[in-house]
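Here is a complete protein record:
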Amino acid sequence: MSSFSARLSLAFACIGHTISHLFAPIFYVTVLSLESELGLSHGDVVVLIIAGNLLFGFAAPLAGWLGDRWSSVGMMTIFYLGTGFGMILTGFATTPLAIAVCLAITGLFASIYHPVGIAWLVRNSVRTGAVLGINGIFGGLGPALAAVMTGALIDFSGWRAAFIVPGSAVIAVGFVFAAGIARGWIVESKIDRKPAPPPASRRDTVRVFLILAVTMLCGGVIFNAIQPALPKAFAETFQATAEGGVLGISALVSLVYLVSGAMQVVGGYLADRFPVKRIYLVFYCLQVPLLAVAAGLGGPALVAVVVVMVASNTSALPAENILIARYAPIQWRALTFGIKFVVAIGFASLGVLLEGYLYDLTGGFYWLFMVLAATAAVAIGAILMLPDDAREPATAAAE
């Protein structure tokens, strides 16, 4: 593969990461408008995205298998065009059922990115931790961009524009990507730019993936529960701002995800230089006290603590993905990442149901944050059982 094609592949992989994280946070901000328009409770509106979130995770292994057996760049083309199409359909939906179905279509196509795009990214990288950290910035940019863009579009054009405008832009990116393939600027590759180390033993592979299934579920539940909670929590704690429109609240949500995305560079940098298990553990250890403290806070203090907590959650991802790349057979890497997102997004969508249920039950977020703190503690216990990697940190991270 030429270096030019590799650079373009990395660029489109990063853009794709932003796009894959648009539809859910757009919806969570529009919930503030849909509650009154549809005449439903917060929990009843939030549940409309469950099918989309489930497909976002559960369809990932099929996408990964097709990426391994057919074509990574072909699957990425389908990802761009299909995700944009689903978002536009959502903008034209008129009933709760139609909104749920269109979000499900969007989630189905968006599911392609994580198994195919991350495996594609690893294949085209040399310093994997650094590249995954940079890619994480773009992943964090998705919720950040979605939040502030959605707030502005709702205030000026209504909630439908919040899906139709970005959906059209995503389709445009898909056509540009397809043109790059047709011209030969982006080419398929089935080998890593960085030679792979000897494969791990079957015993270590099984042990690691059973443990990671627990940590990925815990981390995914925390992330999925926090996403719908933030707009609602900020709207309640800054009621005066909320009365002026959605944009002020969405800007605060955007701040949280901008910082958390940027912090993934730190997570990737550390994973390139220190034992991956240690970095993974540290970021989960930070989440427990931060979630417990957030349960009793409001106002600017809540924003500050949530920024650090979400940053800790997402900064663990480069280390997590390095562990997966280390122990997954190279010929099935995309499929393995797909299985990861069955857990981290599919089953972890329970976090959305948990958020809606606990809010409707208690009228607040205290118990949600306390339950999530306990969830992070479970993840810490699992991480401690991971095998120690005796190799040099830089070698481990560069896979």
Observations:
- Residues 390-399 have pLDDT under 50 and may be disordered.
- Residues 202-237 form the longest helix (36 residues).
